[in-house]
Amino acid sequence: MLVGRKMGGYLIAHRLYSRVVELRQLTVADVPACMKVAADRNWAHSDRTWRFLLELGTGWGVFDGDELVGTTVVTSYSGISAISMVLVDSRYGRQGIGGELVSHVLDSGVSCLYATPYGKPLYERLGFHSVGKVTTYSGVYPRDGGGISRPAEPADLPFVVALDAEAFGVERAALWEGLMACGSVRVADSGVVASTLTNGTTMIGPVVSRFAADAIALVCDAAARAGQVKVHLHDDWVARHVRARGVSTVGSSCDLMVRNASDVPGDRSLYHAPVSMALG
Ligand SMILES: CC(C)(COP(=O)(O)OP(=O)(O)OC[C@H]1O[C@@H](n2cnc3c(N)ncnc32)[C@H](O)[C@@H]1OP(=O)(O)O)[C@@H](O)C(=O)NCCC(=O)NCCS
Protein backbone atom coordinates (compact mmCIF):
# COMPACT_ATOMS: atom_id res chain seq x y z
CA MET A 1 0.00 0.00 0.00
CA LEU A 2 1.43 3.36 -1.03
CA VAL A 3 1.12 5.75 1.89
CA GLY A 4 2.88 8.86 0.72
CA ARG A 5 5.43 10.49 -1.50
CA LYS A 6 8.71 12.08 -0.52
CA MET A 7 11.63 13.55 -2.49
CA GLY A 8 12.91 10.94 -4.95
CA GLY A 9 10.82 8.09 -3.59
CA TYR A 10 7.53 6.73 -2.26
CA LEU A 11 6.80 5.38 1.18
CA ILE A 12 5.10 2.01 1.44
CA ALA A 13 3.55 0.67 4.62
CA HIS A 14 5.10 -2.69 5.32
CA ARG A 15 2.22 -5.10 5.73
CA LEU A 16 3.63 -7.41 8.40
CA TYR A 17 5.20 -4.91 10.76
CA SER A 18 4.54 -1.27 11.45
CA ARG A 19 7.86 -0.47 9.69
CA VAL A 20 7.78 1.75 6.63
CA VAL A 21 9.96 0.93 3.63
CA GLU A 22 10.80 3.27 0.80
CA LEU A 23 10.24 2.74 -2.91
CA ARG A 24 12.57 4.71 -5.13
CA GLN A 25 14.08 4.70 -8.60
CA LEU A 26 17.30 2.70 -9.00
CA THR A 27 20.45 4.11 -10.60
CA VAL A 28 23.62 2.38 -11.77
CA ALA A 29 25.07 3.21 -8.34
CA ASP A 30 22.63 0.63 -6.94
CA VAL A 31 23.98 -2.20 -9.14
CA PRO A 32 26.10 -3.84 -6.36
CA ALA A 33 23.03 -3.84 -4.06
CA CYS A 34 20.87 -5.29 -6.88
CA MET A 35 23.40 -8.08 -7.33
CA LYS A 36 23.24 -8.83 -3.59
CA VAL A 37 19.44 -9.23 -3.71
CA ALA A 38 19.77 -11.40 -6.85
CA ALA A 39 22.49 -13.56 -5.23
CA ASP A 40 20.17 -14.16 -2.27
CA ARG A 41 17.71 -15.73 -4.77
CA ASN A 42 20.52 -17.55 -6.68
CA TRP A 43 20.11 -15.34 -9.75
CA ALA A 44 23.50 -15.04 -11.46
CA HIS A 45 23.18 -11.85 -13.52
CA SER A 46 26.41 -9.91 -14.06
CA ASP A 47 26.84 -6.25 -13.15
CA ARG A 48 27.02 -5.60 -16.91
CA THR A 49 23.50 -7.03 -17.36
CA TRP A 50 22.11 -4.87 -14.53
CA ARG A 51 23.81 -1.77 -15.99
CA PHE A 52 22.46 -2.51 -19.47
CA LEU A 53 18.92 -2.97 -18.08
CA LEU A 54 19.06 0.18 -15.94
CA GLU A 55 20.40 2.23 -18.85
CA LEU A 56 17.76 0.93 -21.29
CA GLY A 57 14.84 0.95 -18.84
CA THR A 58 13.83 2.19 -15.39
CA GLY A 59 14.57 0.28 -12.20
CA TRP A 60 12.65 0.54 -8.95
CA GLY A 61 13.87 -0.64 -5.56
CA VAL A 62 12.34 -1.11 -2.13
CA PHE A 63 14.69 0.03 0.63
CA ASP A 64 14.52 -0.79 4.33
CA GLY A 65 16.65 2.06 5.63
CA ASP A 66 19.78 1.96 3.44
CA GLU A 67 19.32 -1.67 2.49
CA LEU A 68 17.86 -2.64 -0.89
CA VAL A 69 15.43 -5.52 -0.33
CA GLY A 70 13.39 -5.67 -3.57
CA THR A 71 13.85 -4.77 -7.24
CA THR A 72 12.11 -4.54 -10.57
CA VAL A 73 13.00 -3.06 -13.96
CA VAL A 74 10.59 -1.89 -16.64
CA THR A 75 11.79 -1.52 -20.22
CA SER A 76 9.32 0.50 -22.30
CA TYR A 77 9.15 -0.08 -26.02
CA SER A 78 6.59 1.87 -28.06
CA GLY A 79 3.30 0.09 -27.26
CA ILE A 80 4.50 -2.53 -24.77
CA SER A 81 6.54 -2.63 -21.55
CA ALA A 82 8.69 -5.56 -20.47
CA ILE A 83 8.82 -6.10 -16.70
CA SER A 84 11.80 -7.94 -15.26
CA MET A 85 14.14 -8.50 -12.32
CA VAL A 86 11.26 -8.92 -9.86
CA LEU A 87 13.25 -9.99 -6.83
CA VAL A 88 12.61 -9.75 -3.11
CA ASP A 89 15.24 -10.61 -0.50
CA SER A 90 14.15 -13.93 1.03
CA ARG A 91 14.07 -12.36 4.54
CA TYR A 92 11.36 -9.99 3.28
CA GLY A 93 9.36 -12.51 1.23
CA ARG A 94 5.58 -13.00 1.49
CA GLN A 95 5.00 -9.60 3.02
CA GLY A 96 3.55 -7.91 -0.06
CA ILE A 97 6.73 -6.24 -1.36
CA GLY A 98 6.80 -8.11 -4.71
CA GLY A 99 3.14 -7.23 -5.33
CA GLU A 100 3.73 -3.55 -4.48
CA LEU A 101 6.74 -3.33 -6.79
CA VAL A 102 4.96 -4.80 -9.79
CA SER A 103 1.73 -2.81 -9.14
CA HIS A 104 3.82 0.37 -9.05
CA VAL A 105 5.16 -0.10 -12.60
CA LEU A 106 1.86 -1.19 -14.16
CA ASP A 107 -0.23 1.28 -16.16
CA SER A 108 -3.14 1.09 -18.59
CA GLY A 109 -0.82 -0.01 -21.41
CA VAL A 110 0.21 -3.51 -22.44
CA SER A 111 2.85 -5.21 -20.26
CA CYS A 112 4.62 -8.51 -20.73
CA LEU A 113 7.05 -10.60 -18.73
CA TYR A 114 8.52 -14.06 -18.33
CA ALA A 115 7.31 -15.59 -15.08
CA THR A 116 9.10 -18.17 -13.02
CA PRO A 117 6.82 -20.63 -11.20
CA TYR A 118 7.47 -18.49 -8.05
CA GLY A 119 6.28 -15.29 -9.68
CA LYS A 120 3.35 -16.65 -11.74
CA PRO A 121 0.64 -16.56 -8.99
CA LEU A 122 1.57 -12.96 -8.14
CA TYR A 123 1.31 -11.87 -11.79
CA GLU A 124 -2.01 -13.70 -12.28
CA ARG A 125 -3.39 -11.76 -9.31
CA LEU A 126 -2.30 -8.53 -11.03
CA GLY A 127 -4.12 -9.37 -14.29
CA PHE A 128 -1.47 -11.14 -16.38
CA HIS A 129 -2.29 -14.32 -18.28
CA SER A 130 -0.03 -16.89 -19.87
CA VAL A 131 0.35 -16.92 -23.69
CA GLY A 132 3.39 -19.18 -24.13
CA LYS A 133 6.39 -20.85 -22.57
CA VAL A 134 10.16 -20.75 -22.91
CA THR A 135 12.69 -23.31 -21.79
CA THR A 136 16.34 -22.50 -21.09
CA TYR A 137 19.04 -24.65 -22.73
CA SER A 138 22.68 -24.54 -21.68
CA GLY A 139 25.82 -26.42 -22.69
CA VAL A 140 28.73 -26.49 -25.11
CA TYR A 141 27.49 -26.57 -28.68
CA PRO A 142 29.13 -29.00 -31.16
CA ARG A 143 30.78 -27.27 -34.13
CA ASP A 144 28.42 -28.38 -36.86
CA GLY A 145 25.88 -26.76 -39.12
CA GLY A 146 25.47 -23.02 -39.45
CA GLY A 147 27.56 -20.97 -41.83
CA ILE A 148 24.65 -18.85 -43.05
CA SER A 149 25.46 -15.54 -41.33
CA ARG A 150 28.09 -12.80 -41.17
CA PRO A 151 28.87 -10.16 -38.53
CA ALA A 152 26.38 -7.26 -38.75
CA GLU A 153 27.61 -3.84 -39.80
CA PRO A 154 26.03 -0.47 -38.91
CA ALA A 155 24.42 -0.43 -42.39
CA ASP A 156 22.48 -3.61 -41.43
CA LEU A 157 20.67 -1.85 -38.56
CA PRO A 158 17.53 -0.83 -40.57
CA PHE A 159 17.07 -4.44 -41.83
CA VAL A 160 17.63 -5.88 -38.34
CA VAL A 161 15.27 -3.41 -36.61
CA ALA A 162 12.54 -3.94 -39.25
CA LEU A 163 12.71 -7.76 -39.06
CA ASP A 164 12.71 -7.68 -35.25
CA ALA A 165 9.71 -5.28 -35.30
CA GLU A 166 7.80 -7.69 -37.56
CA ALA A 167 8.51 -10.59 -35.17
CA PHE A 168 8.32 -8.81 -31.78
CA GLY A 169 5.54 -6.40 -32.78
CA VAL A 170 7.20 -3.10 -31.87
CA GLU A 171 10.35 -1.30 -32.96
CA ARG A 172 13.40 -1.66 -30.66
CA ALA A 173 16.13 0.39 -32.35
CA ALA A 174 17.82 1.40 -29.06
CA LEU A 175 18.02 -2.24 -27.97
CA TRP A 176 19.68 -3.30 -31.23
CA GLU A 177 22.10 -0.36 -31.11
CA GLY A 178 23.04 -1.52 -27.57
CA LEU A 179 23.47 -5.15 -28.68
CA MET A 180 25.68 -4.06 -31.58
CA ALA A 181 27.77 -1.90 -29.23
CA CYS A 182 28.28 -4.41 -26.42
CA GLY A 183 27.52 -7.81 -27.92
CA SER A 184 27.79 -9.66 -31.19
CA VAL A 185 25.10 -9.46 -33.88
CA ARG A 186 25.11 -11.70 -36.98
CA VAL A 187 22.83 -11.35 -39.99
CA ALA A 188 21.68 -13.72 -42.71
CA ASP A 189 19.31 -13.12 -45.66
CA SER A 190 16.40 -14.49 -43.63
CA GLY A 191 17.28 -13.58 -40.06
CA VAL A 192 19.43 -12.18 -37.29
CA VAL A 193 20.97 -13.49 -34.07
CA ALA A 194 22.60 -11.61 -31.19
CA SER A 195 24.80 -12.89 -28.39
CA THR A 196 26.39 -11.38 -25.29
CA LEU A 197 29.00 -12.72 -22.90
CA THR A 198 27.79 -12.87 -19.28
CA ASN A 199 29.84 -14.44 -16.48
CA GLY A 200 31.75 -16.62 -18.98
CA THR A 201 28.58 -17.86 -20.70
CA THR A 202 27.50 -16.69 -24.16
CA MET A 203 23.81 -15.77 -23.98
CA ILE A 204 22.22 -16.26 -27.41
CA GLY A 205 19.15 -14.17 -28.34
CA PRO A 206 17.17 -12.81 -29.91
CA VAL A 207 16.99 -15.34 -32.73
CA VAL A 208 14.69 -13.90 -35.40
CA SER A 209 14.25 -15.83 -38.63
CA ARG A 210 11.65 -16.41 -41.33
CA PHE A 211 12.50 -20.15 -41.36
CA ALA A 212 13.01 -22.52 -38.42
CA ALA A 213 15.88 -24.29 -40.26
CA ASP A 214 17.69 -20.95 -40.55
CA ALA A 215 16.99 -20.24 -36.87
CA ILE A 216 18.89 -23.45 -36.04
CA ALA A 217 21.77 -22.40 -38.31
CA LEU A 218 21.85 -18.94 -36.67
CA VAL A 219 22.10 -20.56 -33.22
CA CYS A 220 24.99 -22.71 -34.55
CA ASP A 221 26.75 -19.61 -35.91
CA ALA A 222 26.35 -17.69 -32.63
CA ALA A 223 27.53 -20.73 -30.64
CA ALA A 224 30.57 -21.51 -32.83
CA ARG A 225 33.73 -21.34 -30.68
CA ALA A 226 31.72 -19.73 -27.88
CA GLY A 227 32.26 -22.44 -25.22
CA GLN A 228 29.38 -22.52 -22.74
CA VAL A 229 26.19 -21.10 -24.27
CA LYS A 230 22.66 -20.43 -23.01
CA VAL A 231 19.50 -19.80 -25.03
CA HIS A 232 15.81 -19.52 -24.11
CA LEU A 233 13.69 -21.20 -26.77
CA HIS A 234 10.02 -20.78 -27.62
CA ASP A 235 9.93 -23.10 -30.54
CA ASP A 236 9.66 -26.89 -30.07
CA TRP A 237 11.21 -27.68 -33.45
CA VAL A 238 14.29 -25.52 -32.87
CA ALA A 239 14.47 -26.75 -29.26
CA ARG A 240 14.43 -30.39 -30.43
CA HIS A 241 17.48 -29.75 -32.63
CA VAL A 242 19.29 -28.00 -29.79
CA ARG A 243 18.54 -30.95 -27.46
CA ALA A 244 19.70 -33.40 -30.14
CA ARG A 245 23.10 -31.64 -30.05
CA GLY A 246 23.47 -32.52 -26.37
CA VAL A 247 22.55 -29.10 -24.98
CA SER A 248 20.33 -29.73 -21.96
CA THR A 249 17.53 -27.84 -20.22
CA VAL A 250 18.18 -25.72 -17.13
CA GLY A 251 15.57 -25.11 -14.42
CA SER A 252 11.84 -24.97 -14.94
CA SER A 253 10.14 -23.53 -18.00
CA CYS A 254 8.94 -19.93 -17.67
CA ASP A 255 5.58 -18.55 -18.81
CA LEU A 256 5.37 -15.65 -21.23
CA MET A 257 2.59 -13.54 -19.70
CA VAL A 258 0.77 -10.46 -20.94
CA ARG A 259 -1.58 -7.90 -19.35
CA ASN A 260 -4.15 -5.60 -21.00
CA ALA A 261 -4.05 -7.57 -24.28
CA SER A 262 -5.25 -10.97 -25.42
CA ASP A 263 -1.78 -11.85 -26.76
CA VAL A 264 1.69 -10.40 -27.25
CA PRO A 265 2.04 -8.41 -30.49
CA GLY A 266 3.99 -9.39 -33.61
CA ASP A 267 4.47 -12.58 -35.56
CA ARG A 268 5.98 -14.80 -32.89
CA SER A 269 6.44 -17.65 -35.38
CA LEU A 270 9.52 -15.63 -36.51
CA TYR A 271 10.71 -14.97 -32.94
CA HIS A 272 12.52 -18.18 -31.96
CA ALA A 273 14.33 -16.91 -28.85
CA PRO A 274 14.02 -13.70 -26.79
CA VAL A 275 16.96 -11.37 -26.04
CA SER A 276 16.69 -12.54 -22.45
CA MET A 277 13.89 -13.20 -19.99
CA ALA A 278 14.31 -9.58 -18.90
CA LEU A 279 14.02 -7.82 -22.24
CA GLY A 280 11.46 -10.00 -24.03
C1 LIG B 1 8.38 -14.00 -6.62
C2 LIG B 1 8.80 -12.99 -5.55
C3 LIG B 1 9.34 -11.74 -6.21
C4 LIG B 1 7.58 -12.65 -4.72
O1 LIG B 1 7.91 -11.60 -3.82
P1 LIG B 1 7.08 -11.38 -2.47
O2 LIG B 1 7.48 -10.09 -1.89
O3 LIG B 1 7.20 -12.58 -1.62
O4 LIG B 1 5.60 -11.26 -3.08
P2 LIG B 1 4.27 -10.93 -2.28
O5 LIG B 1 4.54 -10.93 -0.82
O6 LIG B 1 3.67 -9.72 -2.87
O7 LIG B 1 3.37 -12.17 -2.68
C5 LIG B 1 3.83 -13.49 -2.42
C6 LIG B 1 2.85 -14.26 -1.55
O8 LIG B 1 2.83 -13.74 -0.23
C7 LIG B 1 1.50 -13.49 0.14
N1 LIG B 1 1.50 -12.37 1.07
C8 LIG B 1 1.59 -11.06 0.75
N2 LIG B 1 1.53 -10.33 1.90
C9 LIG B 1 1.43 -11.22 2.93
C10 LIG B 1 1.36 -11.10 4.32
N3 LIG B 1 1.36 -9.91 4.92
N4 LIG B 1 1.32 -12.21 5.06
C11 LIG B 1 1.33 -13.43 4.48
N5 LIG B 1 1.40 -13.62 3.14
C12 LIG B 1 1.44 -12.52 2.39
C13 LIG B 1 0.81 -13.16 -1.15
O9 LIG B 1 -0.60 -13.35 -1.06
C14 LIG B 1 1.44 -14.18 -2.05
O10 LIG B 1 0.84 -15.45 -1.85
P3 LIG B 1 0.69 -16.54 -3.04
O11 LIG B 1 2.04 -16.66 -3.70
O12 LIG B 1 0.27 -17.77 -2.35
O13 LIG B 1 -0.32 -15.96 -3.97
C15 LIG B 1 9.89 -13.59 -4.60
O14 LIG B 1 9.42 -14.84 -4.12
C16 LIG B 1 11.22 -13.83 -5.28
O15 LIG B 1 12.08 -12.95 -5.30
N6 LIG B 1 11.41 -15.06 -5.84
C17 LIG B 1 12.64 -15.43 -6.50
C18 LIG B 1 12.83 -14.68 -7.81
C19 LIG B 1 11.67 -14.91 -8.76
O16 LIG B 1 11.34 -16.04 -9.12
N7 LIG B 1 11.08 -13.79 -9.19
C20 LIG B 1 9.98 -13.80 -10.14
C21 LIG B 1 10.55 -13.54 -11.46
S1 LIG B 1 9.38 -13.76 -12.72
TrEMBL record:
Alphabetized PANTHER family for the sequence: BLL4206 PROTEIN, SLL0310 PROTEIN
The protein's name: GNAT family N-acetyltransferase
Gene3D superfamilies reported in the protein's UniProt record: 3.40.630.30
Annotated SUPFAM superfamilies: Acyl-CoA N-acyltransferases (Nat)
Pfam family, one: Acetyltransf_18
Entry keyword set: Transferase
Boundaries of every N-acetyltransferase domain copy: 21-153
Naturally occurring in which organism (per UniProt): Lentzea tibetensis
Superkingdom to which the source organism belongs: Bacteria
MF terms in GO: acyltransferase activity, transferring groups other than amino-acyl groups
